[in-house]
Specification:
mainly alpha
Length: 204
Amino acid sequence: MLEIFFYAIIIMYSPGPVNMIGLNTGIQGLFRQYMPFCGGVALAMYLLFNGVSLISHHFVPDDFLPYISVIGSSYIVYLSLKVWRSANNVAANNSPQALSFRDGFFMQLLNPKAFVVILPIVTIQFPAAGITGLKAFLICTLMGLLAFGAPASYAFLGNFIGDKLQSPTLLAGISRTLAGLLFLVGLSIGYEHAFLHWYAGTSA
């Protein structure tokens, strides 16, 4: 069963759109204000794990994921614009705005990377290990807690880096760079998980 947690940790704690936002938020000195966002991420992962676990034998990811990817990539692009606007506040030496619980919830709910974590665990590793019922529910709950820790750890790292930087212009530049990368991540997700999937279907 340890391999389930190793796999989840490797995927959840690798750089991705949610963790990128966490790093940026920490750099801006909003570590504590970012915790509701992390809570939204954790709740989304908890619900997704349990939901997919319940319907895994009916789940058809090839037909379902491209639509999630379109919505998710659009939402990531939207959040990248919010991060960019927040950087403008930093440059003007105004108080930056932290993302909300709702932002974290919907971003993770619509994040295709979440399904990269969930599907192999629920549809392959759970049945192979004979994990069902209450045991599956408890593991899904632990996965939600792990999902909280991933962006929170990046925010903590960003907070440490931000404490070493005093220039609002430099902080704003870092935030704009991360916002640009987040924007590109959103476009990449839409291209790789939706456009290429549909293009392959039409050319087959």
